[in-house]
# Entry
Amino acid sequence: MESFSSLLKKEHTSELVLSILLVVYLILGLKTPEPIASVIDTVLGKIAIVLVVIYLFMRANPILAILSLFAAFVLMRGSSITTGSDALKRFAPSEEKKSSQFSAFNQFPYTLEQEVVAKMAPLVQSGSSISQASYKPLLDNLHDASPINA
# Structure
């Protein structure tokens, strides 16, 4: 009660006016304009708001500080809704979700083609070398083109 009575003193009229403005902002639930929201919805904007709230907790009336904390929360939330980053965080899938869905889609049954290829005799047996071919390849007519290795 002492902090409320100190807020009503004549030398603290600016704090009283700011408290009234914050209460009006919180009650009315005003939508944050796009230019202001785009500035506030950045890392630097959020840091600036948090610094102002910390300053008010250190220097101003505790009631004003608590009101500023609530107003800062509402302002940051409204700014993220206005810019669309709130919807992006809520509805866009994370990399973990996407990779789990892709791995689920890539589970195929053992096909006939894989079975036939597995049963085929390999061209090279392990431990043996490839023997020389019994034929010699011939080069076809080049039609006045130069050879590749020239």
The chain has a mean pLDDT of 83. The CA atoms of residues 121 and 127 lie 15 Å apart.
